Amino acid sequence: MTNFKESANAFVPMKMKNIADLPSVDINLEIVDGEGIDEAGKTYKYKFFELNQERYRVPGVVLGQLKDILEVKPDTKSFKVKKTGTGKEGTKYTVIQLT
Question: Using CA atoms, how far apart are residues 17 and 36, in angstroms rounded to an integer?
């Protein structure tokens, strides 16, 4: 057992990473729905998955591109996401089929 002091000192807050941070993604990872609040106090929904005790956000455009790949190559097993640009409006994602 630990006390509050030990738990607080050992606590590392979970940060959300981006799917593009990974070198490859297994097509069979389970995706979960999440909900957050932005700086303006508005609620928003997002999708994410957990891998090695870390959370990775999945932008909707990635799912759309992956759907297009799966229509042509239904046996796809893994993919990579390339991210370019910054900011909400300037970020672009490209899904690349690996295997």
Answer: 14
